[in-house]
Write a structure and sequence with these properties.
Helix content: 55-70%
Pfam families: CitMHS (PF03600)
Protein name: Sodium:proton antiporter
Radius of gyration: 23 Å
Main location: membrane
GO molecular function: antiporter activity
Order of helices and strands: HHHHHHHHHHHHHHHHHHHHHH
Keywords: Antiport, Ion transport, Membrane, Signal, Sodium, Sodium transport, Transmembrane, Transmembrane helix, Transport
Number of helices: 22
Amino acid sequence: MKSVPAIRRGALAVACLLAAPTAWAAEGPPAAWDLTGSWYGVVALIVFVLAYVLVVSEEALQLRKSKPMLIAAAVIWVMVPLAYAAHGNTTVPEEAIRSNLIEYVELMLFLLSAMTYINTMEERGVFDALRAWLVTRGYTLRSVFWITGLLAFFISPVADNLTTALLMAAVVMAVARDTPRFVVLACINIVVAANAGGAFSPFGDITTLMVWQRHMVSFTQFFDLFLPAAVNWLVPAAIMSFAVPAGRPRPLETTVRIRRGGLVVIVLFFLTIASAVAFHQFLHLPPMLGMMAGLGLLKLYGYRLKMRERRELAGLNGLNGHAAPFDVFAQLQRAEWDTLMFFYGVILCVGGLATLGYLALVSQTLYAGLGPTTANVAVGLLSAVVDNIPVMYAVLTMQPDMSHGQWLLVTLTAGVGGSLLSIGSAAGVGLMGQARGVYTFFSHLRWTWAVAVGYAAAIVVHLWLNADLMHVPVGGG
C-alpha cells in the first residue's frame, strides 16, 4: 500500500452503497466497447496521466495524492457516458460505475476496521512496548539488522507493511542513530522484509486484499507464496549483512508498559481476522462483513474501557491535565483518509478507462503478446515506479486468461517489486521521512542490485516450487 503518511490522519464517514439489489454486482461490470480512439477516450487517458504525474510528485509538491485522483475520476466518468451516448448506449456506464463503487466500498470498510484496530493498539502502547523491549536488549548491530528484518517479515502479514516498517525503523533509529551506514542498510532491509511479508497474506497489502476478495487466490493458497517471499527478503539481507558495521550500541534504559486492554485488543484483532476469513471461505460473503463485526466488538469493549477509565479519572478530581478516557471513535478518526480517498480515485479512474476499452487493449498487448510470465514479471518492475494499487487493479480488471500459478506470480511481483526503489512502496517512502537525510533515494539505489537479485530469486523459486500450479485454472488445485 503506497501511502506516504503513516496511518494517522483524517475523519471517516461511510455511505452504504450495497442496498440496491442488482444482478450485475455478482457478475462484474458489463463488457466494454473499444472507444479508445474516440475524442472522449483520448481526453480520459490524458486526464489520468496528468493526475498520476501529480500523484508521483506528491512529496515535491506537498499535494496529497487523493486530490488529483478524485478530480480525475470525476472527469473520466463524465467522458464515459458521453462516449457511450454518442454511440447510442446509455445503460453500460451506469452499470459499470455501480460495479466499481461496490468493490470500493467492500475494500474501504475492510480497511477501515483494520486501521481502527491498528490505531487502537498504538494508543494502548502495544507498539511502544515492543520497541522499548527491543532497544533495551543490548543487541549487536548485526543482531538488530536481522531481528528488525525478521519481525518486519512476520508482522506485516497481519499489520500493514507501512506501520510495520515505521515501527522497526523506530527501533533502528533509537539504537543506532549515530551510525548512518547501519541505518541505511537496516532501513533497506526493513522495506524489503515488510513488502515481502505482506505478499503472502491477504492482510499485508491492499493489492493482496484485492486479489483475495476477487477470489483469484483463496486464503490458504496465499501461503504457497511464503517461501518465494522469504527468499525475496533473505537473499538481499544476506548480501547486505556483510556490509553491516560491527559494534554493540549502548542499551537504552526505558520502560514502557502496555495500557489496560491492549492485550485484549490484540486478541480481538485476531478474532476479527478469523471472522473475515470465515465469512469469505465458508459463507461466500465479502470478508468486510467479518471485519465490521469485529469493529463492533472493539466498540463494545471500548465502551467498557471508557467507563472504567472515566470512573478512575473522576476519582482523581477531574481529568488531570490532558488525560482523557479511551474513545474508540478517536481511533476511527485517525484512519488514513487520504489513502482511502486515493483508493476511491484509483478504482474509478481505472474502471472508467476499462469501460472505454483501454484495459482490453493493454491486456491483448501485454499478456497475449508477451505471455503471462513475462507480463507478470514486468508488472512487478512497473510497481517499483508506479503505485502497485492501480497496477494490480488494472490486472484484475483486465482479467487475463491465466493459470492459478500465474495469479500467484503477479500477486508476488506486485507486492515485492516496490522494494527495488525507495519510492516504490509506502514502507520505503515512510522510512525516507523517518530517517530523513540518511536513508534516501540514492542510498537505496546503491543496493537496488541486491534487491533485484532477491526479486529474481523469488520468481525462480516460485516457478520451481509451484510448477504444478502454473497450468491449474483459477479456483483449481
